[in-house]
């Protein structure tokens, strides 16, 4: 069965996500309009700059259609800036930045910046079998609160310094978010997990 995944293509690392999704067995398209959105089985919100994407969602008249589609159950996966956009509450963002409320969680933007801007580590991710996932964090958010019904998929491992234990991957129903960027490592397991969950639906 063909699974058609749209990648929100207003800004950010759209191409890397399309490559990973196609390698994971999906057909991909870009999403810039409400018509594009109506034609996909799931959507990926890429890494980039969440405040810029928030503004562009307004400019492209896509904020309300996307929020409504997510509320109606459109499966979604967001990495980094995408995680921020999927949240129900964002700390340390611009006052005019909006988020989509697809996952009941509070996310702190640029949270690791107080420790170190960018870093890599190996993580165990719930539901991802085999070797740990190489997680690349680039001015990444972390999750400070999850609501009932939100499953924590990964935390920064013990021994990683002051940020150990921090929640960096979550799932609520068919919607997933990671603080890190699996689209840049060539490890397809996170994208495959998302594509498979859309296919099973
Ligand atoms: N710091 C960015 C933001 O606030 C996210 C960075 C990223 O996506 N790599 O949106």
From TrEMBL:
The active site of this protein is located at: 80, 181, 183
Enzyme Commission identifier(s): 4.3.3.6, 3.5.1.2
Q: Which UniProt keywords apply?
A: Glutamine amidotransferase, Hydrolase, Lyase, Pyridoxal phosphate
Enzymatic reactions: L-glutamine + H2O = L-glutamate + NH4(+); aldehydo-D-ribose 5-phosphate + D-glyceraldehyde 3-phosphate + L-glutamine = pyridoxal 5'-phosphate + L-glutamate + phosphate + 3 H2O + H(+)
Q: Which GO terms describe its molecular function?
A: glutaminase activity; pyridoxal 5'-phosphate synthase (glutamine hydrolysing) activity
User: Would you tell me the Gene Ontology cellular component terms?
Assistant: cytosol; glutaminase complex
**What residues does L-glutamine bind to?**
48-50, 109, 138-139
What are the recorded Gene Ontology BP terms?
L-glutamine catabolic process; pyridoxal phosphate biosynthetic process; pyridoxine metabolic process
Query: Membrane among the record's keywords?
Result: no
What the entry lists under InterPro entries is as follows: Class_I_gatase-like, PdxT/SNO, PdxT/SNO_CS
What family is reported? Belongs to the glutaminase PdxT/SNO family.
Q: Assembly and interactions? A: In the presence of PdxS, forms a dodecamer of heterodimers. Only shows activity in the heterodimer.
The name under which this protein is listed is Pyridoxal 5'-phosphate synthase subunit PdxT
Per the UniProt record, the source organism is Tsukamurella tyrosinosolvens
Name of the gene encoding the protein in the UniProt record: pdxT
């Amino acid at each position: 069965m063909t699974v058609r995944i749209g990648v929100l293509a207003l800004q950010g690392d759209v191409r890397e996500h399309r490559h990973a999704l196609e390698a994971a067995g999906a057909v991909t398209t870009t999403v810039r309009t409400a018509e594009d959105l109506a034609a996909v089985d799931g959507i990926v919100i890429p890494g980039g700059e969440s405040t810029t994407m928030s503004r562009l969602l307004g400019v492209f008249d896509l904020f309300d259609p996307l929020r409504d589609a997510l509320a109606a159950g459109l499966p979604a996966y967001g990495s980094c800036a995408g995680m921020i956009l999927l949240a129900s509450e964002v700390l340390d963002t611009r006052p005019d930045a909006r988020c989509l409320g697809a996952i009941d969680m509070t996310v702190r933007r640029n949270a690791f910046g107080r420790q170190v801007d960018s870093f890599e580590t190996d993580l165990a991710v719930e539901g991802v079998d085999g070797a740990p996932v190489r997680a690349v964090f680039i001015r990444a958010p972390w999750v400070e609160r999850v609501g009932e019904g939100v499953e924590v998929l990964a935390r920064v491992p013990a021994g990683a310094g002051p940020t150990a234990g921090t929640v960096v991957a979550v799932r609520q129903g068919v919607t997933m978010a990671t603080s890190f960027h699996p689209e840049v490592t060539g490890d397809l397991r996170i994208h495959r997990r998302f594509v498979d969950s859309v296919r099973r639906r």
